[in-house]
Amino acid sequence: MAQVTVRVGGYSHPVACQDGQERHLTNMAAEVDKRIGTLKAMGMQFGETRMLLLAALQLADETGDLQAEIAALKAGGAVAAPPAAAPVPDTALAERLGRIAEAIEAIAATLEGA
What we know:
One of its GO terms (biological process) is cell division. The chain is α+β, with helices and mostly antiparallel strands.
């Protein structure tokens, strides 16, 4: 058995794994650490145990969703499409709308002066 020390949430943890699985274990620990970093960035300030619990619950939730998708695919069912990406801003359209707004303001100013 191999012994790896991983760093999660600012704490070092020695963990045993099968020989050859060290990199995989390190990658998994990095994912958990990333989740804890995200929680901290959201302003959550809990103890180590609570942060690990919240990160584990996030991972369990995603795992459950993936398992449901796999089961639906195996059953020949449809899987919900991933959320659409945010639309890319159209700068030409924004400039055109700006010119139209200026024209409308000019017309309004003319009408107010009449």
